[in-house]
Amino acid sequence: MQPDDLEGAVKVSTHPKTARLGRPSAAEAARKQEQLLEVALDIFLDRGFERTTMEDIARAAQMSKRTLYSRYLDKQAIFLAAIKAASERYTVSVEALRKVETDDLKATLLAVARLRLNNLSSPEGLRLQRILSAQSYRFPELFNSLFESHTGPTLDFLVDLFTRATSDGQLAISDPRAASTAFLSLVLGGPARQLIAGSHLDSSELEARLVYAVTLFLDGTRPR
């Protein structure tokens, strides 16, 4: 059979298995898209925004530049898409936060702090934070919006927690949202900076710091 004959045979085939060969499923297409954005993020992190080209990304993703440009207008577009996708994976959900809540306020706050710290110290979290730190001057609006989006669920959870704890007399907080922001800065600020810089933090040392920070916060917000 000649190539033209083969092409015609494929086109006229109505067998279900044959018909599915040339078109990936929605799940497969989504997986490939996720892989493309992960590859792009790795290259941006390794080479920086300026030195990365669309050709670099296409080559690493094993696709043509034409295919890449059909999906993303330019380098900035795929950079923003890669950051957004990574941020969505990095965000701690409200459901995850609610699962660690108990009747013990201190234990709940420690569990929240551990969730956020484990999330930050994951390869995905560190990769995202490093590239955001490096490119925040170029995309300040992106940095601010992503901070709000991936910190938002935790802030909302803490606002509700502190409001209820104030209502039942455990705490005396007049501005739950300001207190929530202060809490996250207190428990995560120092460790986050060290981890992003590449410093190794011993798990026992991290736990001691979290316990101290949570205790300090509670001592400062209890009724007097």
Structure description:
With 224 residues, the protein is mainly alpha-helical. It has twelve helices and no strands. The protein is 79% helix and 0% strand. Helix 3 (26-51) packs across helix 9 (123-135). It is elongated and about 65 Å long. The N and C termini lie far apart (90 Å). The model is unreliable at 1-21 (pLDDT under 50).
Q: Could you give the count of β-strands? A: 0
Please tally the helical runs, counting DSSP H or I stretches of 4 or more residues. Answer: 12
What is the CATH class designation of the largest domain?
Answer: Mainly Alpha
Percentage of residues in DSSP E strands: under 5%
The tally of structural domains comes to 2
Provide the succession of SSEs: HHHHHHHHHHHH
Percent helix, as a range, is: over 70%
Query: In terms of per-residue confidence, which ranges show pLDDT below 50 for 5 or more consecutive residues?
Result: 1-21
- The secondary structure category is mainly alpha
Please, what is the average pLDDT?
83
The outline comes out as elongated
- The CATH homologous superfamily of the largest domain is named Tetracycline Repressor, domain 2
Question: What is the radius of gyration computed over CA atoms, rounded to a whole number of angstroms?
Answer: 24 Å
Q: Identify the CATH architecture of the largest domain.
A: Orthogonal Bundle
* Distance N to C terminus: 90 Å
In the CATH scheme, what's the topology name of the largest domain?
A: Tetracycline Repressor, domain 2
Largest sheet: none
